[in-house]
Design brief:
With 358 residues, the protein is α/β, with parallel strands linked by helices. It contains 12 helices and 12 strands. 35% of the residues lie in helices and 18% in strands. The two termini are 34 Å apart. Bound molecules: adenosine-5'-triphosphate and magnesium ion.
Amino acid sequence: MGVEIRVEGLTKSFGRQVIWQDVSLTVPAGEISVLLGPSGTGKSVFLKSLVGLLKPDRGHIWIGDRDLPRLSESKLYETRKLFGVLFQDGALFGSMNLFDNVAFPLREHTRKRESEIKRIVLDKMEMVGLLGAEHKLPGEISGGMRKRAGLARALVLDPEILLVDEPDSGLDPVRTAFLNQVFLDLNAQIGATFLIVTHDINTARTLPDNIGLLYQRHLAMFGPREMLLSSEEPVVRQFLNASKVGPIGMSEEKDESELEAEARSGQDPGRLPPIPPQQMPSDGLIRAGMHAPGAWCAAHGVTPPPGSFVDEQGRDWVEEWPRYVASMTEAAGMAGSVPSRPGRTDPSRRRYDAGAES
Ligand SMILES: Nc1ncnc2c1ncn2[C@@H]1O[C@H](COP(=O)(O)OP(=O)(O)OP(=O)(O)O)[C@@H](O)[C@H]1O
Ligand SMILES: [Mg+2]
C-alpha cells in the first residue's frame, strides 16, 4: 500500500526567480518523510508541484508510470485522487461545521449516499480523535483541532499519498506531540506514503523514516533519518541541530567574513548529539515502513554518535527492536491480523478524543 513518488531533475521558477532547481528524490512508498528548509525555500511550492497545482519548468514527477507534469487535464484529475493534501492554512470552510467540512470531498467527487458519507466521515474523525466535535464550527475549536479536522478531510478519499504542509505551525509542543502521534498511527493504519513539511526540528528528528532538506535553491540532502542525523555536512548538521554555528545565518547564507569570524573565535560545532529513538505508534500498531533502529548506520559503516537510540528509560532500541517486532507480531497474530488495526472499542484509540485537547 502507498505509492512511491519519484522526482527527477525538477526545476521551478516564477518569472526570473528560481525557486529550486534540479531536485531529484524518491519518496518511498508507505514511509513517512519530512521536508525541511528555511522559510521561503519553496517547500510549499514543492508540495503544490507534486499535486499538479503548480507546473514545474523542467523535470519529472513519476507516480507509477504517470509523469504528472505531462498528463492531460483529465488524467491529472484522476491522478490527483491518489493524494490527500493538508495545506499550510488548514483551509476549512468557516461557515460549515466540521462534519460538512470533512464530508466536502466526498460530496464533490463521489456519488456516495449520505448514509455512506456519514460512515466514512465519522470513521475519519475518529481516526484523528475528533469524534463528538462534528457539529462545531472551525471558529469554535482550538488550532490543534482545526489541523486534525483538515487532516480528516484529507483522508476521506482514502489517499495513497498524504501531503501535509506545516501541520505544527502555531501549535504548542504538547499538541505537536499529539499530532505527530496521530500521523504515526494513521501511517500504521492506512499505510499511505506521507510527506510532511515542518519547521519543528524535534519533529524532524523523531517522527520520520526519511528527511529532506531544501537549501539555497537545491535539495541539500534526502535520505533515511539516520543518514541525516549522523551527517557532518555543514548545512545539514547546522539545520538539524538548530545551531548558530555553520553556513546558515539570519539572512539564510553567511558571508565569508562571518564564517571567518566564527572560525577565529574558535566556535566549533562540537560533537553530534545522539540520534534519538524514533517515535512509535500507539500500542498494538506496527508501521510497515519503519526502518530498524541503527540499520542504516550499520549498513553504511557509520558509527552513530554515542548514546544514540537509547530512550528515556535507558533502553537501547538497537537491541530492543527484534524483541519488540516479535512481541508485536505475536500480539497482532492473536488478534487475527498483521499489522492490526485496533477495533472501535480498543481503549488505545481513545487517547486523542476530542475532549483531550479542547
Ligand atoms: N504563485 C506564486 N507566484 C509567484 N511567486 C510565488 C508563488 N508561490 C510562491 N512564490 C514564491 O516562491 C518562494 C517560495 O515560497 P514557498 O511558499 O514555497 O516557501 P516555503 O519554503 O513554503 O516557506 P515557509 O516555510 O515560510 O512556508 C517565495 O519567494 C514565494 O514568494
Ligand atoms: Mg510554506
